[in-house]
Amino acid sequence: MPSAPSSASDGYDIALKIGGAALAVGLPLGSFAWLSGNITARLSDAGSWVPYRPIDALLHPRQLWPRLDETFLLFAVRILPVLLTLLLVTGAAALWARYGNRFGGGKKKVTGMAKARDIEPLLAKAIEAKARSLRPRLKNAARIEPRDAGVLLGNLQGTKREVRMGFEDVAVAIMAPRSGKTTVLAIPSILAAPGPVLLTSNKAAGDAYTTCLDARARVGRVWTMDPQQIAHAERTMWWNPLADARTLDGAGRLAGHFLAASVDASQQGDFWSKAGSNILSQLFLAAALDERPITDVMQWLAFPSDRRPLDILRDHGFAAVASQLKGTVEGPPETRDGIYETARQYASALLNSEIAAWVTPQKDIPEFRPADFVTSSDTLFLLSKDGGGGASALIAACADSVMRAATAQAERAGGRLDPPMLAILDEAANVCKISDLPDLYSHLGSRGIIPITILQSYRQGQKVWGDAGMDAMWSAATVKVIGAGIDDPDFADKLSRMIGDHDVETVSTSHSESGKSTSVSMRQERILPADAIRALRKGSALCLATGMRVAMLDLRPWYAEPGAAELAADSARASKAITTRALAKQTPRQADFDQAA
């Protein structure tokens, strides 16, 4: 290995540091001395303007301004320049401390991560070119707005270069609670969406719903489905979940949503779960064929001996399905009662008249039709509580219906939606458990349907879709965004290995009779070890895009962008309206209790 006397290299380092410090301080100090000396000389008629000579102004001011009074000279080229330099340094330090994080300052930049050339397809020029090829209406546009070209993910760390996913990408975001997943991803994406937007969420006040409500109302109609009154929204729509259940496959999908909302993936294969789901699908099919409301299914479940579903199925040519239903009804009472009770538990939310009203025909209230929605610039907010059971099944079923309607429309339009539809599935593992979502990921992007599934952890996805399902969705996602709060050591290590290694220079020092010497060697180490991923700061995220090196992003929350003040006012107004509606529903005793508290 090459070696060199330590004293020589140490001397060079010291000299370089001293020279850099002298330049950093001396240049502004000399410039201020030259400027203030000239201004003082002109104001006192003690000389003409001297060309830029900062060193002479600092070291030999009398040569430049020989007629200037000694007191003026001392103040102009000694005292005032020192004060101005101190003010400059203090101000620069304060600005850097406050705003440096936006431009890569105030934090250590990770070496070995992707540079701009490594993620070229996600940067402005490539994203714009891709948008022209994907969206016919933009092909000949003189200029394309960034929002029309792709979804903003953030800035490449330490730069102002925007990183965007295109309108053929599908994304998975894993970000812990309170890590800003709504403020940096959901809300900016919704506000900038060029077409229809679907959002699922379990929160309303102070969240994406209130922040985006008025803004999206200015570009299209806002539909809100709030069966559990998260936002205490007035019922201004109803949706028919049986509209897509007129086939055996459609009825099976609807029943599958009730199954997924009630039990984890590990339990969905047992006898009772499958049998209960089968009964629901058969009864959903009968109700859809006879154009009955979905609540009639609960009546049939309460009385297994009711023959109307059997007659409906036979009359519409589903004799085999009717035979299966009859076999269950006439089977051993213990088995039949267990199957029906399982199905009743899955669909129990339909017993709640307030929930059922959102999915049954309502007089003088418009029906939400997915086929019309996907060709509009409207917004659909789907709200449900965590663990909402059957209520979250209706949320998942509605989201699924919209995405299938979008797929059908894309096929009719030549293969893609233009403008594309954005589907933000926030809290997907809690309120939008679409069983085959991992499979849908393989083709939604090519249809102009852009899903962004937001999870709190990788294990949360495994619980809902199983190991194989979550692995499939992770693999199919062309963009993965990993934010702060990754506490799963296995997943953190997996990410660390995916990010890879880089060469690190190691300097070692040895001592001998001839003196001290140093040697340099190279070794490989992880770019980001697991502990560094766990400690990823808020405001940063890893971006893993197909076929590219992993990039570190500086995230951009909506409240730091232009127009934030107006959005904040909109959010405050919408949140206050939620509180007003909630208080209006309270009984006098509840109101008195809240007032006393």
TrEMBL record:
Transmembrane segments: 14-35, 72-97
Gene3D superfamilies documented for this protein: P-loop containing nucleotide triphosphate hydrolases
Location within or outside the cell: Cell membrane
Main localization, broad class: membrane
Coiled-coil region: none
Annotated TraD/TraG TraM recognition site domain residues: 420-537
Signal peptide extent: none
A Gene Ontology term for the protein's cellular component: plasma membrane
CDD domains the record matches: TrwB_TraG_TraD_VirD4 (cd01127)
Membrane topology: Multi-pass membrane protein
One Pfam family hit: TraG-D_C
Keywords annotated in UniProt: Cell membrane, Membrane, Transmembrane, Transmembrane helix
PANTHER family in alphabetical order: CONJUGATIVE TRANSFER: DNA TRANSPORT
UniProt protein name: Membrane protein
